[in-house]
Structures are given as C-alpha cells and as structure tokens.
Write a structure and sequence with these properties.
This protein is mainly alpha-helical. It contains 22 helices and 16 strands. Strands 2-9-8 form a three-stranded parallel beta sheet, with no helix packed on it. Strands 13-12-14 form a three-stranded mixed beta sheet. It has a two-stranded antiparallel sheet with strand order 1-3. β15 and β16 form a beta hairpin.
Length: 602
C-alpha cells in the first residue's frame, strides 16, 4: 500500500513511478464528498480512522489482503497541541526559485546569488552560509495552515482551485477593510460581501502567510512605508543572530530580489548569543541568567556597553560577575586616564595657547604620532564592526602608551615648568589633541562617559560629542623615522626600569629619582639615546643619565647621595645652591624665578 498524498516517502515513490497524487482527505480529516464508494460501504464523510476497517474489508473481499496485524509504533504528533496527526498533501503557495518570465529571464535563485556577491558580510564566514542556502534551497512555501497570522486573502474556485480572476482588485478591497478594522476584518468577512452571486462558487482561504514573509518584507512596508522619513533604502546593514541566515536574512533577500532585483541591504552582520561564564546557555531554571537591566542599574549603562563592545560577537558572548569585574577595571583605567587629560588641559585655551607642531618637544610629536596610529586603526576596526579590537586598542593605549609611558614622563614637565612656558604649552598642545581624538573614539562605545568628558572639555551644554566627526590630527613630516627612534628608546627604558627595580628591591633606593643610570650600547640604540642629551633622564624618570658607546650592552643604576629637591623630587648636586631657596634645585629656581630650563626632547 502506498499513498503519494500521505507521506514524503510515498510521494517520492509515486513521483518516480508516475502515480497520481490523489488526496481524498479534507482539512477536517474526513474523506471528501467525491470519494468513490467501496463495495463494503461509503467512505465520504468518514474520518480516516473510521475508514480504515472498511478499506481492510474491501481488500479482503477482493483477495488482496495478505495479512492484517496491529503494531505499536511512535506515530507523529503535533508539536504544539500534542495530538496525533496524519500526513496529507494540501494546497500550498510557493515563490518559485527556478521560475522564469521568459526564456532569457533570470531565475530568482540566480538574482539572489548575484545579490549575495554584492553584499558585505561581518564576519566574512556569513557569506558561505548564505550562499550555500541559496544554491540548495527548494521553492519558498509562503502559506501556513494556522489560525493566527497575516491571512492570504484569496478566493479559490471550489472545483478548479484557481484564484478568482479579480484577485488583485479583491486584495485591495480586503486591505481597505483591514486598514479600518484590523486582521479580523478578513476572518469575519462573508465572501458574498465581495463576490455577490459568485460566492457559492468560491471558498475563502484560511491559510496565513509564513512569518518570515512578514519580517522579510520590512524593507517595503517599513523602510519605504511606515518609517520612510527616518530610513533609507537599501538599508546600510541588517543585524541579527547567527540563526538568521535561514530566516530573516534569507527571506529579506528573496523578497527584495523578487520585488527590486537586489538585496534590501548593503551588508549583513551576524552575532552570537549570550552565555554564562562557563559557556552554558542562560536559563531561569539553572539560575544563571544575568539581566542587562540589573547590570545597568548596578554598574551603569557604560559598563554594559563596554562589555558588549569588548566581546567578540562573532561567537558566543560569555558574561559573569567575574567577567564584569574585569570590564569595570578596564573602564576605571580609561576613566582615570580621561581625568588626567582633562585636569592638565583645564587651563589651556586651544585658540590662544596652541603651539605649532614644529615647536613641540619631540616626545609630544611622538605621542601625537601614536594617537594618529590609534585613530586610524580604530576607524578601520569601526568600519569592519570589530568593536572588540577598538576596545583592546583603547585600553592598551591608556595603560601602555599613555599611563605606562608618555603621561608618566610628562608629569615632571607639567608640574615643574612655568605654567605658560613653551615646554608646558607643548605638552598641553599634545594633550588637547589626544583628548579630542580619544573622546571621539570612545563615544560609540562608552557614550555616556564620552558625553560627560565632552561637556567638561568644551564647557558648552548645547554641544555634544555625538555631533562631532573624527578629530583632524596634525601630521608633521618624518613620523616614520621618529616612531622607529622612540621604539628603541622605549625598549631601552624597559631595561632601565628593571635595573632600577633591582636597586629598589635591594633597599638601595626608594624612588627611581634617587638613582643615576648609565646605559652602555651601540648602533642605532646608542644614536637614539645619545640624541636626547640631558633630556634622557626625564624619559627614564631618574635624576641623571649617561650614555656610553659600547658593543657589550649593559644598564647600570647607581644610588645618588645628593639632596632631594622638595619641589621636583630630583636628587641633584645643585639643591640649595641658591641661598634664597635652600630646598630647591637649580632648574626649579630657573622655572619659578628665571627664564626656565630649556628642553628639546622630553
């Protein structure tokens, strides 16, 4: 026994051997009125369960029944109602993937494949997933036999099953009714209201649209419909979870290609799903759910935003209290850096106090070059929507380039030179540009913090960082050589720090400023260090330095026995040399009461 209308395997066999797909069972599970009677009784109007004994009797009476035995097996049940179901072929509505308007016309599949080629994917592996589905997917079945959803407002002829010849006109009339009374206007509609005397020949369809058709056509009824004033078409990007390559991404692509011959989006971004710290799916029953609102209420919205941006969304996004603590630490580092920057440009008016870049000290130009590198890399990462790389770059810039190097060195110049001296104005000029760039780079991620900084920086309550574009940083010539030179200096500084730390651990010094450092080296390193002259001590944050040309590289830190200047804390031989200021060193006296010390590099 095989029934091509009542099962996939049966259908495939019937298709192979040319059997008719004859479905005598109606939507109510009963045989339709035109079902031929059997010798043993009428089938029409009976359920399939009532008909089964009659079919067996008929087969037995014809000598066609080999054996009749009841077996227990797992029969399909409805996933929603948990009741037994039977498989039956029904009238469905499809969007054909291989249909053509003419012999030379392209198929929908071909158009969709070309549209995928023209779409940007973030991350890149999304292309392969969508391409594979386009190449293998069958025709798109857009009808569903459900009691809820958007109806398909067709009237079908009772005998031929064809739509009414005035279907386009009737759809418009139904749409006007739905516009006034909602979807129920269709379900409660009497066919005679629209068809008149023809109503007896037609049946009103009860099928609803596939929900993916609803969401997939938002480019028409939202982007170019209800929200046309706030939207553009095509959309710059569609953003959803990694399961939507077979869902919204695909239905939007197919409907867009069918209507407009192109995808309704320029790019697709795919993200993973949030899991707990162990990688487990969040579940209320497991008690491992971390609610976004709770994080925002407890730690602030910027912590939640920073966690989101710092996590590589192309995979699963883990979150836990421990992970959030690390995010808070990273945020605190950024915020402390911003506080330092704001504090040291508070008395700086860029319009009056800004020095031309060629008058800056070299380390300030180096910090500017580092900031430009940061801004260019972050902009590129933003363009690729790789926010976690932006966060990593910003945090590294704060901790290593600024906090661990530049700002650490800069403190002496900011706090000991004259307020309006060229040395201090040079530092402030660099800090102003760094702050302008840094706060704008932060704005898309920690937007509340960036706005807070912007209000302090500008003092203009009517302005907003969200109104700004990326900062236009000066670009002096020779950056490449300078970056290479200072890379050598920073490497030497790391060796000096180790030598000073060894002296501190040995109890010979308490502070690095209580030591003198001699660096023995050769080649490019010697040239780079020697070029800084006496300014090298500021880079190494010690009281005196010497650079000796020697192929055998070595760093020697020696404790100093001189007095400590109470103002700059340097240990110098000339502390107390000026009788009027017995507790100050010579450079502090000059910075306070004279022309000020001359600096060229740091």
């Amino acid at each position: 026994h095989t029934a091509p209308a009542h099962g996939v395997d049966d259908y495939n066999i019937g298709k192979k051997y040319g059997l008719p797909v004859n479905n005598p069972v109606g939507n109510d599970g009963r045989f339709i009125s035109t079902t031929p009677p059997l010798a043993v009784g009428e089938l029409a109007g009976k359920t399939v369960w009532e008909a089964n004994p009659l079919v067996l009797q008929e087969l037995d009476s014809r000598g066609r029944l080999l054996k009749n035995e009841k077996i227990r097996h797992s029969y399909p049940h409805c996933w929603r109602h948990k009741t037994p179901i039977i498989f039956r072929a029904t009238t469905q509505w499809f969007i054909g993937m291989e249909n053509r308007k003419g012999e030379e016309a392209p198929t929908l599949r071909w158009i969709a494949e070309r549209a995928v080629d023209e779409t940007q994917f973030f991350p890149a592996w999304g292309r392969a997933r969508l391409e594979a589905m386009m190449k293998t997917r069958p025709d798109w079945c857009v009808s569903r036999q459900r009691n809820w959803g958007v109806p398909i407002p067709f009237f079908l002829h009772k005998e031929t099953g064809l739509p009414h010849p005035r279907t386009a006109e009737l759809i418009e009339q139904v749409a006007l009714r739905v516009e006034k009374a909602g979807i129920e206007a269709w379900f409660s509609l009497d066919a005679a209201d629209l068809l008149g005397a023809e109503a007896d020949q037609y049946v009103k369809m009860k099928d609803t649209l596939d929900v993916w058709f609803d969401s997939g056509t938002t480019h028409w009824h939202v982007l170019r419909g209800s929200h046309a004033a706030q939207s553009t078409y095509p959309a710059d990007m569609y953003l959803e979870g990694s399961d939507q390559h077979r869902g919204w991404f695909q239905s939007s692509l197919l409907s867009g290609c069918a209507i407009d011959g192109r995808a309704p989006y320029k790019a697709l971004l795919t993200h993973g799903f949030v899991v707990d710290g162990k990688g487990h799916k969040m579940s209320k029953s497991k008690g491992n759910v971390i609610a976004p609102q709770q994080v925002s209420d407890k730690m602030g919205a910027d912590i939640l935003r920073l966690w989101t941006a710092s996590t590589d969304y192309s995979g699963e996004l883990p979150i836990s209290d421990e992970i959030l603590k690390r995010v808070v630490e990273g945020y605190r580092r950024i915020r402390n850096t911003l506080r330092f920057l704001l504090a040291n440009v508070s008395d700086f008016d860029a319009a009056k106090d800004m020095l031309p870049v060629d008058q800056w000290l070299e380390i300030d130009r180096y910090a500017l070059a580092l900031t430009r590198e940061l801004q260019e890399s972050c902009r590129a990462d933003y363009d690729r929507y790789e926010f976690h790389r932006v966060v990593q770059a910003l945090q590294t810039f704060c901790s290593e380039d600024l906090g661990g190097f530049y700002l650490d060195i800069l403190k002496d110049r900011l706090y000991t030179t004259a307020p309006k001296s060229a040395a201090r104005r040079s530092a402030q000029s660099a800090l102003w540009h760094i702050t302008q760039s840094f706060v704008r780079l932060l704005a898309p991620i920690t937007s509340f913090t960036a706005e807070e900084v912007w209000q302090v920086l500008t003092g203009n309550a009517d302005d907003s960082v969200m109104f700004q574009v990326w900062h236009d940083l000066p670009k002096p010539e020779g950056d490449g050589e300078m970056l290479a030179k200072w890379a050598l200096i920073r490497a030497a500084r790391a060796d000096v720090t180790k030598a000073l730390e060894a002296q501190r651990e040995a109890g010979k010094i308490g502070s690095a400023l209580q030591a003198s450092v001699e660096i023995r080296c050769a080649g490019e390193k010697f040239a780079a260090l020697a070029a800084l002259g006496d300014d090298l001590k500021f880079v190494f944050i010690c009281s005196s330095t010497a650079v000796v040309k020697d192929e055998a590289e070595q760093v020697v830190a020696t404790p100093l026995e001189h007095a400590k200047c109470e103002r700059c804390w340097h240990v110098r031989e000339d502390v107390g040399a000026n009788a009027e200021h017995p507790t100050l060193c010579g450079r502090c006296v000059s910075n306070l009461y004279g022309e000020g010390e001359a600096r060229a590099f740091a």
